[in-house]
Amino acid sequence: MMELLVFGLSIQAQAQVFMGANGNISFYSKAPLEDIEAHSREMSGAIRANTRELAFSVPVNTFQFRKSLMQQHFNERYMESDKYPKATFTGKINETPDLTQPGTYPVTATGKLTIHGVPQDRTIQGTLVSDGNKLQLTSDFKVKVADHKITIPRVVFHNIAEVVDVKLDMTLNRTEE
Question: Which residue range or ranges hold the Lipid/polyisoprenoid-binding YceI-like domain (predicted)?
């Protein structure tokens, strides 16, 4: 809560924050030998309406695969989930939409995408749909595996794409901070 001094009067101003949990995030790797797809419903995040700051996080070990062996290799060999348990994005929305007002807002956010313990400066596009009390966030973006120092053994190099498609969809509800 912030305190403002207006015409000699002290006014309590509450910052509006949109928060969510159980967001959907998925990735898809198209490769010559086998396509790989995984989903998680455990992404959480928040957007502060007045400053446009945002933060999102997903536990890496919550991604579910069609094949249990793929999931095991993903967590143990590639992502090292015990050592790097979360993937995160923190940053700020570049545009200045009034997220407390109903509307559809194409946005870009600039910040740090951290995967496998390696932060990368990124600008990610998305869409925010507001009804005034909740936001629906959607985004599609690409992640280059090598940018996050994820090593793919030569034996399975043709099984995993160098660039992975990521999609997210999340509802964030308005709260008063």
Answer: 14-173
What is the tens place of the pLDDT at every residue in 108-140? 999 999 999 999 999 999 999 999 999 999 999
Q: What are residue 49's phi and psi, to 5 degrees?
A: -60, -45
- Give strand pairing partners of 23: 43
Q: Which two tokens stand for residue 169?
A: 């969809």
Give the span between the Cα atoms of 110 and 131, in whole angstroms: 24
Q: What three-state secondary structure class fits 95?
A: coil
- CATH number of the 16-176 domain: 2.40.128.110
At 19-55, the pLDDT tens digits run 999 999 999 988 777 788 999 999 999 999 999 999 9
What does the alpha-carbon distance between residue 147 and residue 116 come to, in Å, rounded to a whole number? 10
Q: Distance between CA atoms of 14 and 2, rounded to whole angstroms?
A: 6
Residue 168's nearest CA partner among 34, 61, 45 is 45
Pairwise CA distance, residues 96 & 17, whole Å: 15
Q: In the numeric block, which tokens belong to residue 47? A: 């957007």
Mean pLDDT of 71-87: 92
- Mean pLDDT over the full length of the chain: 88
